[in-house]
């Protein structure tokens, strides 16, 4: 009887410790995510007040008016996936070299080079790209070489270049971690069994690095979907993202209900993307378990 009582007290003490440890993060989650999201949902069904802002009402007119911002949705839904794919194509060879081929000293040196851009402000780096892609930068060099006049700044290409530059390190590190944990003996075994390097890569390296690839793609894609600064500076107001539309609606037009509806549209897109991500990773994990068995 005494033993059972002591066990109950220990279990109750463990439960309270768990509650106390989770309380700060739970409060943070409710205060900074759930409550603001609930406010945005309420605002999205309201009306714009006469002087701007929010007026209590219940209407779906804001959602029916979403096609008015079709350009922002289109640009975001095109350039964000394209930027993610370009980041992946650029990051994978670098991560592969860092994890598989590079010597420890060279690996450390290259990892520092990948991290160095984070030591300066993202705003300053984007301003630097405004000069590089501007009329006196790369286009002037191309014209000097006799290749004709080229305009880069304020185009979708300039926004894409800025996005790849800004978010490439976030793609490199998850893939690098996956490849570094890869058992190199598997590659050697594939070679011993007569597999050529390309086939070993497709059947061994790439599947085992898939978690890093998926994580890197999700990390970059989610951040690109909410990007504001790069389209604003390198797009020159001609390449609008959803983030730019939200700034315009909330701060300039002061149409908070319509801005909230646009924000909810972005949330729905992100929820669908994360759902697909979870299903893919779950399926991959199940398949990997089966293969290991």
Automatic annotation (TrEMBL):
Belongs to the binding-protein-dependent transport system permease family. CysTW subfamily. This is ABC transporter permease. It comes from Hypericibacter adhaerens. CDD domains: TM_PBP2. One of its GO terms (cellular component) is plasma membrane. GO terms for biological process: transmembrane transport. Residues 73-279 form the ABC transmembrane type-1 domain. The chain crosses the membrane at residues 20-45, 77-99, 108-132, 152-179, 200-224, 256-278. The keyword Transmembrane applies. Its main location: membrane. InterPro entries: MetI-like (IPR000515), MetI-like_sf (IPR035906). Keywords: Cell membrane, Membrane, Transmembrane, Transmembrane helix, Transport. It is found in: Cell membrane. It comes from the Bacteria. Pfam families: BPD_transp_1. It is a multi-pass membrane protein. PROSITE patterns: ABC_TM1.
